[in-house]
Amino acid sequence: xxxxxxxxxxxxxxxxxxxxxxxxxxxxxxxxxxxxxxxxxxxxxxxxxxxxxxxxxxxxxxxxxxxxxxxxxxxxxxxxxxxxxxxxxxxxxxxxxxxxxxxxxxxxxxxxxxxxxxxxxxxxxxxxxxxxxxxxxxxxxxxxxxxxxxxxxxxxxxxxxxxxxxxxxxxxxxxxxxxxxxxxxxxxxxxxxxxxxxxxxxxxx
Length: 205
Fold this sequence. Notes:
This protein is an alpha/beta fold and about 200 residues long. Helices cover about 40% and strands about 15% of the residues. The chain has one domain (about 45-200): Succinyl-CoA synthetase domains (Rossmann fold). The strands form two sheets. A four-stranded parallel β-sheet has the order 2-4-5-6, with helices on both faces. A two-stranded antiparallel sheet has the order 1-3. It starts with about 25 loop residues before the first helix and ends with a helix.
């Protein structure tokens, strides 16, 4: 019915899948998702996983997840989710902060590195600079946590204002000392997963 379907003041509540309960963080992101015209999705798969993703676009998130599993990191995959529809800088920062809080909550018991993929295809209309400004703010708010959890960040993105957005990522890595590798549209989208595999084969520390 037009008066209830999509009405932000009286949204339809969809229950969690049978046999599943939402974590506090999942419920929080779902609440944000309902408030914005963009899309914010999060499912926690393994709270102590060492490979986490913050991916722009539902299609890209599927491709990244498949590649992570194909390369042998399925059991280490911490989450599944995506942000899309040109979310605001503020909403992107909150989404990024939530994922950073999750990946840093439990440092690896064996002292190994964790990996955060900030990935996506080549956007048509999502402003890469605006969304990355939000992500950079979350990184700056979490420097000590990220270092304690030994998080390495791999970035691959293309789209409107990508040059400025990617430069922001390079700068925050240089300023904070957090290892951040940045790649543009000319690097294959899932190349960063190969780089994680190489890092693991080199010792993962």
